[in-house]
User: Which sequence fits this backbone?
């Protein structure tokens, strides 16, 4: 276990309005060991944020990359979720329970030994499905600390 970890922490971060250098620097300043990409499709029109380029930039910074497609918010549910539609949030939370429970549990377990960051596009944690993932993690282990970047 890393000495610097006194509490279990999951960092929630979006790359909206950030370039790759700023983004990687932000992760390094938060001592992130593992970035978990929670986009359904790890592609982006924004330079540096598609799967291969992102994994490479993170690797150079000593940060491991993992894409967990099962944690992605289905395309048809994204806009309503961003707008704060409660039924969209409920649909995504049902998806987490029905299809991604094991992955959520694994993240909670990993947070005991490595500093994890969850990545999606939206900079605002509250308008992104990362908020539902972190809520599920906290329900599993109330001692988890969530850092929103």
Assistant:
């Amino acid at each position: 276990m890393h000495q610097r970890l006194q509490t279990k922490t999951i960092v929630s971060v979006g790359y909206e309005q950030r370039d790759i250098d700023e983004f990687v620097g932000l992760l390094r300043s938060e001592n992130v060991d593992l970035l978990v990409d929670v986009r359904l499709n790890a592609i982006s029109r924004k330079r540096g944020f598609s799967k291969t380029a992102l994994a490479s930039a993170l690797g150079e910074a000593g940060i491991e990359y993992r894409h967990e497609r099962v944690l992605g918010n289905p395309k048809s549910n994204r806009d309503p979720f961003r707008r704060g539609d409660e039924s969209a949030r409920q649909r995504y939370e049902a998806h987490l329970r029905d299809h991604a429970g094991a992955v959520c549990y694994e993240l909670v377990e990993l947070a005991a030994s490595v500093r994890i960051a969850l990545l999606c596009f939206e900079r605002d944690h509250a308008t992104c499905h990362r908020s539902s993932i972190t809520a599920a993690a906290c329900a599993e282990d109330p001692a988890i600390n969530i850092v929103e970047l």
